[in-house]
Amino acid sequence: MTDAAEGWAERWREFHRPVRVGPLWVGPPWLEPPEDATAVVIDPGRAFGTGAHATTRLCLELLVELDRGSLLDVGCGSGVLAIAAARLGCQPVLAVDSDPVAVEAASENARANRVDVEPRLADALEDRLPAVDVAVANLTLHAVVALGGRLDSRLLVASGYLEREVPAPAGYRRLEHRAADGWAADVFARETE
Fold first, then answer.
1. Which run of H or E residues covers position 153?
2. Distance between CA atoms of 93 and 131, rounded to whole angstroms?
């Protein structure tokens, strides 16, 4: 490895900052969580998701406030949302991603956090998704809208889009809207017939 590559391998850690959301502390394995926190230790490796982005923080805020039940993390990346949900008491917790590297990272992070999360390789826009109480999708506006007709969940926590964008997933109505740093997150409820 070159000196420049070795330097970057260590310098990227400077950008991986812990965040605190209610009882949750989300941070890297080289930092110590506060004693009063429910720790979610995430080493993203090559997968997306450290917990620091506004969309992830907004999803965590919303998850902290929801009743516990079964949960599906769609587009799980490093597994931060699935692991946080499991640490909050949700069960069972499933996580899907179309990237094998993300599924591997989510599996490793779940093991490191000693939580029962089942990461699976799946294309959420093509493959069958399990029925759950809550689905969480921190994706793009297009993906969140496309998921609406594919999900079988009572609630959908969605983010990954700008504050000015307004998702309308089929079969769901908005219950709550939050914004931070120009990004937005929403809780949607399944419309009853």
1. strand 153-162
2. 11
Domains in the chain, ordered, with CATH? 3-190 (3.40.50.150)
Average pLDDT for the chain: 90
∠ CA 70-55-158 to the nearest 5 degrees? 45
State pLDDT tens for residues 169-188. Answer: 999 999 999 999 999 999 99
Residue 154 amino acid letter: R
Is 27 a residue whose pLDDT tops 50?
A: yes
Q: What percent of the chain has pLDDT over 90?
A: 81
* β-strands 183-190, 153-162 pairing: antiparallel
What pLDDT does residue 7 have? 52
Beta bridge partners of 118: 94
At 177, is the secondary structure helix, strand, or coil? Answer: strand
The dihedral region occupied by 185, where left means phi > 0, alpha psi between -120 and 50, and beta the remainder, is: beta
Walk across the sheet containing 24-27 and list its strands: 19-21, 24-27, 38-41
Contact criterion met (CB below 8 Å) for 135 and 155: yes
In 3-state terms, what secondary structure has residue 58?
helix
